[in-house]
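can u pls check wat happens w/ magnesium ion
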Amino acid sequence: MCGIFAVSGHKEAAKLTYLGLYALQHRGEESAGIVSFNGKKISCQKKMGLVADAFDQQSLRSLEGECAIGHVRYSTTGSPSSLNIQPFSACHKKGNISVAHNGNLTNINILHSKMEDKGTIFQTSTDSEIIAHLIAKPGRNNIKAKVKHALSQLEGSFSLAVMIDQLIVAARDPSGFRPLCLGKLDQAYVLASETCALDLIGAKYIRDVGAGEILFIKEGKIESVKLNKKSKSASCIFEYIYFSRPDSNIFNRNVYLARRRLGEELAREYKPDCDFVMPIPDSGNCAALGYASQAKLPYQTAIIRNHYIGRTFIQPSQLMRDFRVRVKLNPVKEVLAGKKVLIIEDSIVRGTTTRAKIKTLRQAGAKEIHMGVSCPPIKFPCFYGIDFPTKSELIAANKEVEEIRNFIGSDSLHYLSLEGMLSAMREAEFDFCAACFTGGYPVEIPNNFNKIMLERGG
Ligand code: 5GP
Ligand code: MG
């Protein structure tokens, strides 16, 4: 999970990147960084924390030049470290190389040990550093050939923005796991993980970067090159279910409408006797709307979200056991008291926050609480960039639906079936990766990969 943004050929490149990262904040809250190039040298600002806290007037002013790339990071594994903040930058005689990466390289261990055997030392444990090293490797003279050769050695998932002096490179892995799109603002080209970032700066969406495509952007010109590896399309279906913003279009489809369809499909499968349907905000909102319209049930927003909490550093005390949930979400007792309610949640991962939310709804006086989930049980870890933990932490990997219902404390529980989910998405032009539900991993995973990811902490 991460968000990337890049600008080529605009006087305010870094400021636009800053705004772009603002729109992509949901893709990573751990750290934020921008690197720019002013024709002579690169400037870099990176910090732990949210975009709003990572930059100020002065640091933005120091990011000179007409080219910039930026990154927001959500560390998928390991402990947060300021060393791992992206973009990663390195000097090379062909130019300064900076890399912003979203995804997870599955052959990182092999690449790492090969390079270490040849004497390479690494500063960080991120995929981005490996990519910079691969580009810098001797052999090919032309920078584009170097980039193509480097990217063809990567396996797993990557959506990338690379800046080599004033050359901006965008690329997606051959399966197209993670999104990345191209836009235009005046004469400048813009790259973003999601279209909501283009909207914010008033850029026009041009197209998605294709799966297995590399774009070289320089001085207003774009060249497209294909990676030689062919692969079946496997765009991440969970981007639609939870991760992307509903106002984005990813993989050529709007996320809000896709979520509505998932909710409608859920209503065809599951209709407990209820007074009204309500979402767990915000991630359940669109699916709950779809559900309510299909089931012709009233829609209530009986949990109100506090939008101003940011990150809470206050440690919950014994007096406030459900503090983390309560500070963010507060139920409206007057709406809930004595009612049979159906809550719609986009997904259950560990089950712990869902359990806490149901408890607060009971305390608020709900008589019956039924729960519909707009995706199937998540039974398998994700190795392509979504923060799904090891199997032991995934509740559905270890419990049957009835046991999960018992754990979260609802009166009934229904997960959207796999067929229902796929049927809701059937108009898509792409095949999806649904490995977290099925265990069918489209790109091979090394045996001990889980352990590798945890150890590397990247
Ligand atoms: P749980 O009950 O499993 O503790 O939490 C489920 C909630 O986590 C859901 O509201 C869902 O929107 C949210 N969620 C789903 N996937 C992810 C993820 O990858 N990371 C985080 N932080 N939350 C997620
Ligand atoms: Mg949620």
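The chain is about 30% helix and 25% strand.
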